[in-house]
């Protein structure tokens, strides 16, 4: 009886090696398919964060215009440098924010509130 159980252990060594290789390749395949998804999500998050930051800068610059203060020419935050171009003439006021190929613009028609 001891000889039979001993021979089974010898035959299982090769099986365990193949089973381990198959499990390793399945885990590697899952990780390899997950990495592009994560990279895409990180790029999308960075784009959305840039857009939100641009709107925040725009809001703060409009507040400065409303209080008759000077508008900043550049804004540095999060390692990014945003360019701010004010539009101020007799009839219109506004702010244009640019970063790389993205741009947002807002024109303020009036700072007065109307009471119905």
Automatic annotation (TrEMBL):
Transmembrane annotation, as ranges: 15-39
Q: Which domain of life is it from?
A: Bacteria
Keywords of this protein's UniProt record, alphabetized? Answer: Membrane, Transmembrane, Transmembrane helix
Question: Which protein is depicted?
Answer: Competence protein ComGE
Query: From what organism does this protein derive?
Result: Carnobacterium viridans
Read off the lineage from the record.
Bacteria, Bacillati, Bacillota, Bacilli, Lactobacillales
């Amino acid at each position: 009886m001891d000889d039979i159980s001993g021979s089974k252990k010898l035959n299982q060594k090769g099986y365990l090696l193949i089973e381990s290789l198959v499990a390793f390749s399945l885990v590697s395949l899952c990780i390899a398919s997950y990495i592009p998804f994560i990279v895409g999500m990180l790029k999308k998050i960075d784009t959305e964060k840039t857009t939100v930051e641009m709107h925040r800068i725009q809001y703060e610059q409009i507040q400065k215009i409303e209080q008759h203060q000077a508008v900043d020419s550049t804004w540095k935050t999060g390692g990014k440098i945003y360019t701010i171009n004010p539009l101020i003439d007799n009839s219109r006021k506004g702010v244009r924010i640019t970063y790389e190929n993205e741009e947002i613009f807002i024109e303020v028609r009036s700072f007065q509130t109307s009471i119905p």
